[in-house]
Amino acid sequence: MSQHISLENRWGIIALDKYAQWSQKDISESMNIPRSTVSRTLKRHRETGDVEDLKKSGRPPIISIENFDDNLITKQIENDRQITSSRISTNLRRNHDIIISSRTIRRMLHILNYRQVLYKITPLLNEKSKKKD
Fold it and tell me: Are 88 and 73 in contact (CB under 8 A)?
């Protein structure tokens, strides 16, 4: 679908078309959605009898990060805030037999809203410098 709309709205489109016999133009204007979305929703309902999202193609993810608070990556970050993506990759390979690249880890960290932080290194003050203030 060109625009993601809720299941309730999809069933609303079907009801307005089937029972109220509204035109696609009227439905799109009243629900404030594109006409193409209304058309595709009605077409899917005619073909499959349902308006659920179809199964997505492509390779499924190796690690599920749907639960932002409880997954293998966030657990490692909680244990060590300065851990690198390559270290996370190595730990996953050793401890869980999951082979995943450090680039994929960085992509997942971006999705999880983790950002790289460079710590500022400051020299330690010696006694002479402390007394200067």
Answer: yes
Q: Tell whether the model's pLDDT for residue 2 goes beyond 70.
A: no
pTM above threshold 0.90: no
Per-residue model confidence (pLDDT) at position 41 = 93
Domain limits, the chain: 7-48, 59-116
Q: 7-48 maps to which CATH number?
A: 1.10.10
| Residue 69 pLDDT | 76
Residue with tokens 């035109």: 23
What is the distance between the alpha carbons of residues 90 and 101, in angstroms, rounded to a whole number?
Answer: 9
Maximum C-alpha span of the chain: 87
Joined tokens for residue 9: 């709205």
Q: Which residue has the tokens 């060590």?
A: 80
